[in-house]
Amino acid sequence: MKPSVHEVTPDQQARAVLVSLVTQSLKREENYDPDYSLAELIRLAETAGVEVLGTLSQNKEYADSKWFIGKGKAQELKDELEALGANTAIFDQELSGAQVRNLEQFLDVKIIDRTQLILDIFAGRAKTREGIIQVELAQLSYLLPRLSGQGKNLSRLGGGIGTRGPGETKLETDRRHIRDRISELKRQLQEVVRHRVLHRERRKKTGVFQVALVGYTNAGKSTLLRQLTQADVYVENQLFATLDPTSRALKLPGGMEIVLTDTVGFIQNLPHDLVAAFRATLEEANEADFILHVVDSSTEMMEVQMHVVDEVLEELGAHGKERLTLFNKTDLLPPKQREMLTTEGEFLRISAYSEQDLGRILDALERHLMGDSRTFRIPAEKGDVISLVYRVGEVLENEVDGGDMLFKVRVNNKEYDKLGYLLAAYDSAQLIHGENEGETSEYV
């Protein structure tokens, strides 16, 4: 078969027209902004390496079951694609297999929807075994019901946008083979999740306090992690620059060491298959003792992005966790606009590149994590128990009292309960009582 003039070859950049259909149901959604959604689609396309040649929008009561957009609009899109020399059409909403097939046959270009575009970006970002498994699982789950709708894409393994990762090797396999592969990936992912749970439990047993960085994609989480911990992490001004969670040790001014974890960024209309596949990764937020919600204060859609993060945290069961909101990128705002930044609960206005602001974050974390001072009596020969006290709290004073050591330690209530549980687990100690400063928590 003679290849189409619009076929995307491996060494050819995708040149696309972006299409948005605004239906009545979308207009009724509280936080939906068609202009912002289309602007975000442009950024997604650019992140995926697509050259955006133009955009096309349509207002319609509901989507056309055959063409998604109306037949007349489809003809208008075809004319624009030919005039611009585009080889790809990217839709801001999710398409059915039949719609993909019909549009591809009529337009003679590659058809990509928002979900497939995000999956393609994730395929390029995944580096760890867990991330690669999760992306492939999400891609195959997306492709399975659409195999009959792939049309020429099934015979055109030309590469390019929308066919990275398993796309190049799995599109021509039958449904049974894909189902088998999905089952195998789920089994592998369960094993990875089991190891992740073991690591979490190990961190809990050591008494290390865990803090998760969460936020909308490109809010500056990875930059903040790098600036606070000098971590060698990938930082770039693009969507989903970070896919795999990264944990680094962070020492607070008082000497207490905590674990700071960067998580995958959230986005509006994150594909359901992707949320399901990445649940194990996102649950880093759910397992954390404290959450730093990083917000891009320089975007006009700041409130919408904050709402999206709240929704995802609620879905994960982490909405009620103690958190501190960080309004990042305030260096890009005029002073008056900066002072207007506010939200419920505690917050800081910061720039990730300001040493002074980084110090304020560390001080705020220490205030949250460290509470009242307590006094502990521990046998001097129990070095493992003494080491645990230093890890969990901030030792203010210590002295020898006969064969015991007395430690005055600043520790919050949650960590105090954890410390009591951990100390009781040692054969060397049994918790008798524990009070605030002025009384003694004795272990015999």
Task: Characterise the protein shown here.
- It comes from Paenibacillus filicis.
- This is GTPase HflX.
- Belongs to the TRAFAC class OBG-HflX-like GTPase superfamily. HflX GTPase family.
- It is found in: Cytoplasm.
- Residues 209-373 form the Hflx-type G domain.
- This protein is α/β, with parallel strands linked by helices and 444 residues long.
- The protein has three domains: 15-175, GTPase HflX, N-terminal domain (Rossmann fold), CATH 3.40.50; 208-369, P-loop containing nucleotide triphosphate hydrolases (Rossmann fold), CATH 3.40.50.300; 373-442, Alpha-Beta Plaits.
- The chain is built from 16 helices and 14 strands.
- The strands form three sheets. It has a six-stranded mixed sheet with strand order 6-7-5-8-9-10, with helices on both faces. Strands 2-1-3-4 form a four-stranded parallel sheet, with helices on both faces. A four-stranded mixed sheet has the order 12-13-11-14, with helices on one face.
- β12 and β13 (404-410) form a beta hairpin.
- α5 packs antiparallel against α6 (129-143) and α6 (129-143) packs antiparallel against α8.
- The longest helix is centred in the middle third of the chain and has 31 residues, at 175-205.
- 37% of the residues are buried.
- The model is unreliable at 1-6, 149-158 and 427-444 (pLDDT under 50).
